[in-house]
């Protein structure tokens, strides 16, 4: 009899537990649906048009008409793109609705349109952009009643510093143009470093992120934006990255205040502190200074090669990303206290930061080489011997010039040494292309090159190309 009673009680408890679990799951699902319904109206789709100059491989041949190419050496081709964005604020004085998106979504676009959840499509303008963080602020004017709509659907920005690995996150965007698409996953890792983005620690998530998701929000279970979906790794599954919203807020505030992002540097070349180096220097963590730039603020302040930087303004430095963030996010001209360990002693050194300037990445350098038809290389001892280069204190070696390119038209030849650009000596290929990039940004028509050719020295003028010619 007792056994029957126990079986009855156990069965009842099982039924109760299953019923309770089912009810709880329905409640969780309902809350998730409400969350998405509340956030989705604040997410928009971004449509862009770019005009890209293309080289006609069939110019001067009868094949151009067959393949539909105009009979010109170069022609302009229209390219369409799309991404996502979300509403962050409205300005009633300027009558603008502001949205956050990715820089790569709107970069080089000649026309940008935003389609909101209520199907209103309005042309947007770029307020400011930042390549390093891959963020941009765009705005649409008060048209078609969008101001009232936007005021109701401004997304709440959370605190990404409170994120923990394993937390549930939801990505909303327009992958492949499918607006309002929702995917869910977890935070896989925090503070991930991505090549080409120094000082920017990204959120890694397994929430599905596809082309078109870029610029859309990554939200937590409170409906707060904790990140901006920005990147996927081609060929990988479950690997997506987002800019932490705290970083995005800082970038956005800089753009709204200055029209651009102001970052700092102190003029050091650094390297990770490997276990072997840590043992040698007798420290547990920090960043090793391998070189101090001449005439830079670090040099003037007394920082030396071989110093281990362990803190900035009292905040610990564990790796390169820590140091870059702690230095770069100060306005130029800020005095920071850099704590180093030198010969076992801890020393505090006050350093005044200077403006950080974006350098040309390897990928961008290849793009510039193709654009100008010019390959330049740093001069190494091996090259001096191989190409019999005369001894010079600075310059870059012209490794190749493409026939018909602007470099060819400027009279440059393989084997030349470019000594200076606009009378400024150049010491590396990276520095050379940075000067050219600055000339492009300043809308310069040409730059003056001082070139050594054999035992002779000549001047020549290199035309500056606008956009992606």
UniProtKB/TrEMBL annotation:
Residues that bind substrate: 104, 134, 212-214, 230-234
Active site per UniProt: 104, 134, 214
UniProt record, GO biological process: proteolysis
Gene3D superfamilies per record: 2.30.42.10, 2.40.10.120
GO CC list: periplasmic space
Alphabetical keyword list: Hydrolase, Periplasm, Protease, Repeat, Serine protease, Signal
Enzyme Commission designation: 3.4.21.-
Keyword Glycosyltransferase: no
InterPro entries named among the record's database cross-references: PDZ, PDZ_6, PDZ_sf, Pept_S1C_Do, Peptidase_S1_PA, Peptidase_S1C
Pfam families tied to this protein: PDZ_2, PDZ_6, Trypsin_2
Molecular-function annotations in GO: serine-type endopeptidase activity
Domain PDZ stretches: 255-344, 359-428
Record's subcellular location: Periplasm
Keyword Signal listed: yes
Primary localisation category: periplasm
Record family assignment: Belongs to the peptidase S1C family.
Name of the featured protein: Protease do
Organism (species): Persephonella marina (strain DSM 14350 / EX-H1)
